[in-house]
Amino acid sequence: MDQIKSVTPEDLAAAREEFLSERANVVAKNAASSMGVRKAARNPEAVAQNSLQFDVEVSQGERTNQKRSGRCWMFASLNTMRYRTIKKYKLKDFELSQAYPLFFDKLEKSNWFLENVLDTLDEPLSGRLMAWLLADPIGDGGQWDMFKSLVRKYGVVPKEAMPETANSESTHEMDAYLTRYLRGCAKRLRETAASGASADDLGQMKKQMMGDVYRLLVTCLGEPPARFDVRLRDKDDKVALSGSFTPQEFFAEAVGMELDDYVSLISAPTKDKPFGRTYTVSRLGNVVEDGTVLYLNLEPEELKRAAIAQLKGDLPVWFGCDVDQSYLRDEGMMDTAAIDVDELFGFAVEGALNKAERLDYGESVMTHAMVLEGVRLDGDGKPAMWKVENSWGKDHGRDGFDTLSDAWFDEYVYQVVVDKRYLSDEQLQALETMEPVVLEPWDPMGTLAR
Predict the structure, then answer these.
(1) Which one of 227, 257, 287 terminates a domain?
(2) pLDDT over threshold 80, residue 2
(3) Does residue 162 sit within a domain?
(4) Is residue 4 part of a domain?
(5) How far apart are the C-alpha atoms of 224 and 215, rounded to whole Å?
(6) Is position 433 within any domain?
(7) 422: which of 32, 112, 130, 306 fits an S-S bond (Cβ 3.0–4.6 Å)?
(8) How far apart are CA 405 and CA 242, in angstroms?
(9) Which pLDDT tens digit goes with each residue over 154-184?
(10) Are 121 and 192 part of one and the same domain?
(11) b or e along 231-241 (b: 16 or more beta carbons within 10 Å of the residue's beta carbon)?
């Protein structure tokens, strides 16, 4: 036996002896094994700092619930939009349909995937690019720019105009069958191209395939409305809006948001992404004619500054983060101090990697999108705690709300979407004139919020 390469009985005996020699190890073992790591590592003094008291705050309607779907990016986007409708018409509550953009996202992602298949006919099937394309062609996740593309093309509708179905609330089966069909389409397109078919013939094949995709989606989600009637009542039960609208007309009338004014700021401190530069991600998107995503990479302090400015302007802020890190889910608290795992284990676990290293080594990516609805400021006017609207229903956290400490923001918030009016002149010029660096499809900044 190679004494260096192998774990030897002597190694095990030494490790056991060292463990048992420390009383704290035994206490930690008893606590973690009986209640779980995070509950055992919970810091009550830090938890006490996560009160729902804020200096700047916007008021929203009832909490929404994405249920067993990966539509957080849609819910977050729609929650920022419905706020405008609630405010404009003085409504007690209002919800936009989440099934409606889901339908068209699946449709457009299917077309995006098939166009990518046609664009990569010469790529080896065993190569990294094809493996990436085939891995999850129409998954639920997404980015703000992708949602913006959907709304620009298809508008929005009230929830009553296209309510939830079993397949929108739990997307697994629908996604599995649509993914299987699309992989079969990829096979047919590649084999037909290899037999010498023309580009026009392949294009016609794709059109027929998209007809099947539409049929599958209608079967699972229902037919999206082309026109619908609306009758909204305000807090005093007076009619605030009524009439017949197309989805595009309803967005213009009831939401009235200038989509192109809202831009994505990211904070990724890796060596390959200098701050102050713009970035895009190869082959990431959904609506073919709208292109891919665009980011401006900035220090976390700049994301905070812009977010606070927008909150002070009485508008919520879409943001993306790695939600499961240092998170007391039942209590709805994202706080690096509230869970002291390193103290529990007695060595650096969470502290083993910094933010850049977590991105480089696959430990952290953006996994979830939510909405910033408030911020508590310290004596110097700097953020200390953030109020977060989640999309996991009113029974999650505290009436559906989470808190996010400013230290957690530094470590695990990767993206905010703000009105470009809150950018500096230099930042705005970079966003509008700089040629973006094209990142690989599998770059951490290409991860989709779910």
Answers:
(1) 257
(2) no
(3) yes
(4) no
(5) 12
(6) yes
(7) 306
(8) 42
(9) 999 999 999 999 999 999 999 999 999 999 9
(10) yes
(11) ebeeeeeeebb
In whole angstroms, give the CA distance from residue 163 to residue 67.
14
Do 216 and 84 belong together in one domain? yes
Number of domains in the chain: 3
Q: pLDDT digit string (tens) for 256-278?
A: 999 999 999 999 999 999 999 99
Same-domain check for residues 162 and 237: yes
Q: Do 123 and 252 reside in the same domain of the chain?
A: yes
328 and 188 both lie in a single domain: no
Residues 223-234: what's their mean pLDDT? Answer: 98
Which pLDDT does position 1 carry in this prediction?
62
396 has catalytic annotation: no
**Marked catalytic residue, from 50, 65, 72, 116:** 72
Task: Flag whether pLDDT at 59 surpasses 90.
Answer: no
Known catalytic membership, residue 185: no
- Is 87 in the same domain as 229? yes
Give the C-alpha separation, 226 to 224, whole Å. 7
pLDDT tens profile 72-99? 999 999 999 999 999 999 999 999 999 9
Residue 82 lies in a domain: yes
Relative to beta strand 413-419, strand 401-405 is: unpaired
96 and 187 in a single domain? The answer is yes
Q: Identify the domain boundary among 257, 276, 292.
A: 257
* pLDDT tens profile 120-148: 999 999 999 999 999 999 999 999 999 99
* 201-219 mean pLDDT: 98
Q: Which amino acid is at 304?
A: K
Looking at the chain, how many residues does it have? 450
Print the domain residue range for 287: 49-65+261-450
- Output the six-digit token pair for 439: 């990142």
Residues 65, 286, 390, 396: which is the catalytic one? 390
Helix (H) or strand (E) holding 102, with range, is helix 99-119
Whether 323 and 368 have beta carbons less than 8 Å apart is answered as yes
Q: Which two tokens stand for residue 273?
A: 């992404």
For residue 44, what pLDDT band results from cuts at 50, 70 and 90?
very high
| Residues near 366 by beta carbon (within 8 Å), at least 6 away in sequence | 320, 321, 322, 414, 415, 444, 445, 447, 448, 449
CB 151 within 8 Å of CB 259? yes
Residues 6+ apart with CB under 8 A from 273: 279, 297, 437, 445
CATH of the domain at 165: 3.90.70.10
At residue 217, the 3 state secondary structure works out as helix
**Quick one: 280 and 210 in the same domain?**
no
Per DSSP, 395 falls in state: T
Residue of 391, 374, 385 whose CA lies nearest to 62: 391
Place of tokens 């997307």: 171
pLDDT in the model for residue 338? 96
Residue 210's DSSP bridge partners are none
Closest of 364, 361, 360, 358 to residue 324, by C-alpha: 364
pTM of the prediction? 0.96
